[in-house]
């Protein structure tokens, strides 16, 4: 017999279980049944696809309670584990992001939603047990099985189990019952029946206690919606998603005819912590005629809808279909297209009929959905229809359609400004004339906004126009410039030469009312934020120069013009030019090349005024 140590993260998680931070302890049984069901799926699949020689004719789960010994055993005749698999799968937590979640959990104390994200699985047995024994033998292997045991502290033991049958049995040595602490008598048959019915009724293998089968085994997606309770849907959702919170929306689909399939999809009510991590699990479960084929089937749903969970059961696929074949399968592509349409129309329904749910949805998943504007050309319009954006019009987000309704007489374009935060965007000098003249501007602050606005030319015939880009021609702009442009020409020429390193042009502005200057991008150039993003991804490119716009009505600008007129060789002029440029850059939240130098110039200049 060997004694081994749990990996550090596993130990922490176990600690949390032993000191039970989750009030509902009943779920340990659900977790064991869920693992057993997965193991049975795997065995059946291995016989179908990998030619494993094993008996798959009587796959089932058994529950056995021993009142005397105070133990509960859950046994399956599924795939089982080798010794090394036991060490790897039960002794460690492989999921990325676990350390971070654990840290959050510690801070948050009571937080079932957070634990839900772990898929605590097997470890949840330690909420009710002071010792757990697992005996297993891998299907298709020779020799002895493996016996694993632990009290949930720092270590576990591993031993040979010569007589173990194929499959896995987990025996939970129950702690004394303590109903005040929601620790029930789990050897009580009535309690077991209740838990199985509540959490595991849909499991597709028989769950037996003695001669009795406790579950109905009905595939939820095959049953009419009116016959399934919300609770049953929710339990099923938890089973496939490992999310313990209730889903926001349930979607049933059924297609009959040449290619038959049924789908049951869930939109979660909360984004998983790893929604934006590359290795996050995504995709749907694929079944063929009620037989589980694979998890995480990415072919069934595009990446931008990766938060959608659920099952697709197709009638006409081969049972041993591989991932490679899936990628090319015409029917799968057709299902995928239909699912996307259905999800988008469901979001639209929420938007129109259930603003509160929609708001939750968009807050949690809007950032992901917007990726579709780049990757799913066919549905660009449908995505824009269900998207909402922050706006200067009110604190409430707006759809593009509602924005267009509010457009001012003569306004042809949808104005937006990207940035890091609402306040930064609102206070940007670019906003001044728009605010003054009552033009609404969309405030786009998600990183993905920088990118999709480049890919979407218009909505409903109205061009999307960045107010920090190109020249602005507000219909009602007073043309301060027209009478006085001539006067400014020498100064503009001077500044252009002086700041040639920094900007490609200097011109008078239509968008400023209170600030002296701002920077804008040329209509066809990439924006500084996008440039920064490319750089962060390691794509060095030439620096894109921008345009400095001056407010002719600002005393600093008119004063500068006067000074330049008086004496073009004035020593203070180059410094003022530099300060003017630096201020414009700071005002939009940009980074100065040499902040120390800027600070010194500014301090010296201020010193002369006090
Ligand atoms: N009854 C079983 N038969 C075969 N393998 C099992 C069994 N129970 C657990 N395992 C293996 O141990 C792994 C860890 O199980 P655990 O319940 O901790 O997490 P999980 O099932 O992967 O995650 P989750 O609980 O989120 O589904 C499983 O992924 C599976 O590979």
Question: How does this structure look, described?
Answer:
With 610 residues, the chain is an alpha+beta fold. It folds into three domains: 2-200, Heat Shock Protein 90 (2-Layer Sandwich), CATH 3.30.565.10; 222-353, Ribosomal Protein S5, domain 2; 485-609, Heat shock protein 90, C-terminal domain (Four Helix Bundle (Hemerythrin (Met), subunit A), Up-down Bundle). The protein is built from 21 helices and 23 strands. A hairpin with a 7-residue loop joins strand 4 and strand 5 (145-150). Helix 2 (27-49) crosses helix 6 (189-200) and helix 17 packs across helix 19 (555-566). It is elongated and about 105 Å long. The structure holds adenosine-5'-triphosphate (ATP). The site of adenosine-5'-triphosphate has 17 residues, from helix 2 and helix 3.
């Amino acid at each position: 017999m060997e004694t081994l140590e749990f990996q550090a993260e596993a130990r922490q998680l176990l600690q949390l279980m032993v000191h039970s931070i989750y009030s509902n302890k009943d779920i340990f049984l659900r977790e064991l049944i869920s693992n057993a069901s997965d193991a049975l799926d795997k065995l059946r699949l291995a016989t179908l696809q990998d030619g494993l020689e094993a008996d798959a004719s009587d796959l089932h789960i058994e529950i056995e309670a021993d009142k005397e010994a105070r133990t509960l055993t859950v046994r399956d005749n599924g795939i089982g584990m080798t010794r090394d698999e036991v060490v790897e799968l039960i002794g460690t937590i492989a999921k990325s992001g676990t350390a971070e979640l654990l840290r959050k959990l510690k801070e948050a104390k009571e937080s079932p939603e957070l634990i839900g994200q772990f898929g605590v699985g097997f470890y949840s047995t330690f909420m009710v047990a002071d010792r757990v024994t697992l005996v297993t033998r891998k299907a298709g292997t020779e020799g002895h099985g493996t016996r694993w045991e632990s009290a949930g502290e720092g270590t576990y033991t591993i031993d040979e189990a010569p007589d173990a049958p194929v499959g896995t049995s987990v025996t939970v040595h129950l702690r004394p019952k303590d109903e005040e602490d929601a620790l029930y008598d789990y050897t009580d048959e009535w309690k077991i029946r209740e838990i199985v019915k509540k959490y595991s009724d849909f499991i597709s293998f028989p769950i037996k206690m003695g001669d009795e089968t406790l579950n109905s085994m009905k595939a939820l997606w095959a049953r009419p919606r009116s016959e399934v309770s919300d609770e049953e849907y929710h339990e099923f959702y938890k089973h496939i998603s490992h999310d313990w919170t209730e889903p926001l929306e349930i979607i049933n689909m059924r297609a009959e005819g040449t290619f038959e399939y049924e789908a049951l999809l869930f939109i979660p009510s909360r984004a998983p912590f790893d929604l934006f991590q590359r290795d996050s699990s995504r995709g749907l479960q694929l079944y063929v005629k009620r037989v589980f084929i694979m998890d995480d089937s990415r072919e069934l749903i595009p990446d931008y809808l990766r938060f959608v969970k659920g099952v697709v059961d197709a009638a006409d696929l081969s049972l041993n279909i591989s991932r490679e074949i899936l990628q090319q399968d015409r029917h799968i592509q057709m299902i995928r297209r239909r699912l996307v349409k259905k999800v988008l129309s469901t979001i639209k329904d929420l938007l129109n009929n259930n603003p509160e749910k929609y708001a939750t949805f968009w807050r949690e998943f809007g950032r992901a959905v917007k990726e579709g504007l780049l990757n799913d050309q066919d549905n660009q319009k449908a995505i824009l229809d269900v998207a909402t954006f922050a706006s200067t019009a009110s604190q409430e987000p707006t759809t593009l359609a509602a924005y267009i309704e509010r457009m001012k007489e003569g306004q042809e374009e949808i104005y937006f400004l990207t940035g890091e935060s609402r306040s930064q965007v609102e206070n940007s000098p670019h906003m001044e004339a728009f605010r003054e003249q009552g033009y609404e501007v969309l405030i786009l602050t998600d990183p993905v906004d920088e990118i999709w606005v480049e890919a979407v030319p218009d909505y409903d015939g109205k061009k999307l126009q960045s107010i920090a880009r190109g020249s602005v021609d507000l219909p009602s702009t007073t043309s301060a410039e027209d009478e006085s442009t001539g006067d400014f020409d020498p100064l503009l020429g001077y500044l252009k030469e002086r700041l040639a390193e920094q900007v490609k042009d200097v011109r008078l502005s239509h968008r400023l009312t209170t600030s002296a200057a701002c920077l804008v991008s040329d209509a066809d150039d990439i924006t500084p934020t996008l440039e920064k993003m490319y750089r962060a991804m390691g794509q060095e490119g030439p620096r894109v120069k921008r345009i400095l716009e001056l407010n002719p009505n600002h005393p600093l600008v008119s004063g500068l013009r006067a000074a330049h007129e008086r004496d073009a060789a004035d020593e203070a002029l180059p410094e003022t030019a530099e300060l003017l440029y630096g201020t414009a850059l700071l005002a939009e939240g940009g980074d100065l090349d040499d902040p120390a130098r800027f600070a010194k110039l500014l301090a010296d200049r201020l010193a002369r005024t006090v």
